[in-house]
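Handout, section B. The chain below has 126 residues.
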Amino acid sequence: MGPSRAAGGTTVLELRGELDILAVSVLSDRLDDLTGAQGADLLLDVRAVTFIDCAGMSLLSRARYRARQRGGRLRLTGVTRGGSVARLLHMTGLTGTFEIVSDEDGAAEAADGAAGPAEVTGGAVA
């Protein structure tokens, strides 16, 4: 997983590859750290996620809940129409529960010093 960088108070983390149960075991501690601070503002770029299952969606939901409980927020960017994340959000009825940032807005925040990629391949984070 790449380092997290703050952009104007927002921490941006790019997720790549497969977000499945094996990746969740690696990513959960990192997301707990990022969402554990009071008022954390986290933007997850999921544009390069090639696969996500229910374990991955559960991880995102838990991170969103933790951030909100501490007065923060978790947003998603890169939720492309027909992409794996968009499909699972729709199938689970969770589309309206996540704040989705447009690709243009997400790219602008990422360009302002965002986090490096968290490469997830074959169920493991590289």
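Note. The chain is about 40% helix and 30% strand. Compare this with the example in section A.
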